[in-house]
Design brief:
This protein has about 100 residues and is mostly helical. Helices cover about 50% and strands about 5% of the residues.
Length: about 100
């Protein structure tokens, strides 16, 4: 499967609009990450894999895991990068919190 930015933008927009629950988008991302034939849109491997890694954490609803959830500004940053509105810089989003 070839993962394109447009699909991820659509899923994030559905989540932000309340059409997808937090756990649903988490399982969607998790399922993609374990798919053996997953390929990323050329030139966007790092961005797409980082977004999936961050979103997949939403599937785990245990209270201890909530510290790893994306915050609103971080999700919006990913969205702008996926749309090509901003250049993706990995250091702009913490990839884990303790």
């Amino acid at each position: 499967m070839l993962l394109m930015r447009e699909l991820v933008v659509e899923k994030i927009n559905d989540f932000l609009a309340g059409r997808l629950e937090q756990e649903e988008i988490g399982w969607w991302a998790f399922d993609l990450m374990v798919e053996s034939s997953l390929e990323f849109e050329p030139g966007y491997h790092t961005l797409l894999s980082d977004v999936l890694e961050a979103l997949r954490l939403f599937h785990d609803t245990e209270p201890i895991m909530q510290q790893f959830y994306l915050e609103g500004d971080e999700l919006l940053y990913y969205l702008r990068c996926l749309k090509g509105e901003e250049l993706y810089r990995r250091n702009m989003v913490p990839h884990w919190k303790v």
